[in-house]
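User:
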Amino acid sequence: MCPQEEQCEAVCTLGKKHAPVAIGKLERFVADFESAHQLFELPQITEQRNQKVAVVGSGPAGLTCAAELAKLGYEVSLFEALHAVGGVLRYGIPEFRLPRTILDMEAKRIEGLGVTIYTNFLVGRTATIDEFFDEWGFKAVFLATGAGTPHFMGIPGESSSGVYSANEFLTRVNLMKAAQFPEFDTPLRTGKNVAVIGGGNTAIDAVRTSKRLGAEHAYLVYRRSREEMPARLEEVHHAEEEGIEFLMLTAPVRILSTSDHWVQALECQRMELGEPDESGRRKPVPLPGSEYLLSVDTVIEAIGQQPNPIIQSTTPGLKTGRKGVVVTDEHQQTSRQGIFAGGDLSRGGATVILAMRDGKQAAMAIHTYLLSKQPQPQHTHSAGQLV
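Assistant: Predicted structure:
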């Protein structure tokens, strides 16, 4: 799931003269070997603690934190707003990249540790964080609800039928089984000519999914060059092999629709790269008079997302930052005592492995916090006087 070529293989010393150690493929082999030979054993929990902890969100950060806390002996309850566990791993990543059997196996292992899982439970509506403390008896809460609210470009014609956010598109296909309608309840209309706007991993997932759903032309429209794309190089290569058509240095200007308001074309403008912007990448600059029409019947926008504001708006005193992220310190502690946060909720869009790191660090911080709240034993002098 993660860009090993950047995060670990990039700094492999062997790579200075040869190819780096294939860390990602070795990790995949070990995990597949363990599963195929049924080598996994649940860890022994040596101490049971009578303190309850709530984990909100069952993505990579929430699953990791719940497992680590359960291994420490806490009574852990995991709350998921959707009807299946996995968060972005289930609704955002296509099955051809992450088989659902792996997610289901991980969920069963976490339940095997004693974690109680609640699905269809929208924290902030079904129950608030304050109710968790006051009525449910939780002593600490870890927030890991991700960043599922999509961004839009704000161009004319964006409200036309046939325009999706990548989040909605992938959720309908991955979680709601829209490709199997009417066997499943959620429909999805995709045409023969699909334009996906963006250059990240989500955009690549959406355009590859479109191709698999029968698009004759699946375009990836990106305003910078190939070198500036944030998507994993491996995923870009897979997309090229599958026949995805890359329109580099191209920016959408407006969406044109038919008389019954369905998408029929995307007006684009060619770009050139100027000076670097605040992200360090060269800024795309429009080329005057280079506008042209791309005939499409579906447009999917994959230009980023931010946290859903439900928990932030229903939890007084919870400090938030730019684009609604929950502010934390280096130990995942928020501005509210006993409330911790991590993953995309505190980072914005990031990688699976960074979310898992936050979950592990939060579990240890919660453990330290709860130990500090326990009454300390009283010691006496030989004369019996309390110290």
